[in-house]
Amino acid sequence: MTIEPGKLYVVATPIGNLADLSFRALDTLKNVDLIAAEDTRHIKMLLNHYGINNALMALHQHNEERACAGLIEKLQAGLSIALVSDAGTPLLSDPGLPLVKHVKEMGLDVVPIPGACALIAALSVAGLPVSPFYFAGFSPRTSSARKTFFTEQMCNPITWIFYESSHRILASIEDLADVLTPDRNLVIAREITKLHETIIKASLNEMLALVRNNEMMRKGEFVVIVEGAPKTEQATELSEEDEKILRILLKECTIKSAVAMAVEITGAKKKILYQTALAIQNQMNSK
């Protein structure tokens, strides 16, 4: 592979197993003029493994806006740069978007060097429909925000996925259990490509018990894949009158209270009322 001057190469790196680095990625990292890495200490382990001794600079969420101008100047001067994250494909819940965006705005070339991605690896073995699917990145940090997100997705008919960390996985599955029916299928892919890789498909109720009772299921990095809603749970539209009543109630009450009263007044399903209430609130907040 010929590395061309003035180009930014977005390089996917292994998510666990170092042997998953592609030949093309290896060649790119060896031959670019500079590697911009989320954590230079972390990427050095990969580079040392392959005997790569290349110039490094940090590009992470705290400095990426400031660092972009300098990197673009280097590209314009004819240097080649590789962008890498700590693991997997850059920009998927990782830093890098401002750089790629600005580089393209300047009319410079951005070249993808594909490879490992936890999301795609988990989907490929999940045994759930994947065409189409919805990826949400990392779930919200707080329980209330997670429940709002899960409620927004509960009637989604397609498979949806989010990343989760070890210190929030149990709370996250508990929040899911508060929102979804216990028979909804779930896949947890833990530590993909690593020594303790675990991929389990089970009902939400079974998965909650497993995560609660098995300490190992609370360690590592997680991809959580949720089965789309069956037709009986998919939302239908509210009538104009029902939505009008809901809007009036939302002006005076919290979402929870407004939905509860709207159920009594209109007889509409709680799920569609809740989803509509969230959409109305988002509209109001954006004005």
How does this structure look, described?
This protein has 287 residues and is α/β, with parallel strands linked by helices. The N and C termini lie far apart (51 Å). It contains 11 helices and 10 strands. It has helices at 23-31, 40-49, 64-76, 97-105, 118-124, 143-153, 169-179, 204-213, 240-252, 255-266, 270-286, and strands spanning 7-11, 34-37, 56-58, 81-84, 109-113, 133-138, 159-164, 185-190, 198-203, 222-226. The strands form 2 sheets. The protein has a 5-stranded parallel sheet with strand order 3-2-4-1-5, with helices on both faces.
Proportion of residues in helical segments: 40-55%
The total tally of domains equals 3
Topology order in helix (H) and strand (E) letters:
EHEHEHEHEHEHEHEEHEHHH
Given the helix and strand composition, which structural class is it? alpha/beta
Fill in the keyword field for this structure.
43% helix; five-stranded parallel β-sheet; 287 residues; 11 helices; single chain; globular; Methyltransferase, Cobalt-precorrin-4 Transmethylase, Domain 2; alpha/beta; five-stranded mixed β-sheet; Cobalt-precorrin-4 Transmethylase, domain 1; 10 strands; 3 domains
TL;DR?
The chain has helices at residues 23-31, 40-49, 64-76, 97-105, 118-124, 143-153, 169-179, 204-213, 240-252, 255-266, 270-286; strands spanning 7-11, 34-37, 56-58, 81-84, 109-113, 133-138, 159-164, 185-190, 198-203, 222-226. With 287 residues, it is of the alpha/beta class.
List the helices and strands and how they pair.
Elements: E1 7-11, H1 23-31, E2 34-37, H2 40-49, E3 56-58, H3 64-76, E4 81-84, H4 97-105, E5 109-113, H5 118-124, E6 133-138, H6 143-153, E7 159-164, H7 169-179, E8 185-190, E9 198-203, H8 204-213, E10 222-226, H9 240-252, H10 255-266, H11 270-286
Parallel strand pairs: 1-4, 1-5, 2-3, 2-4, 6-7
Antiparallel strand pairs: 7-10, 8-9, 8-10
Helix pairs in contact: 3-4, 6-7, 7-8, 9-10, 9-11, 10-11
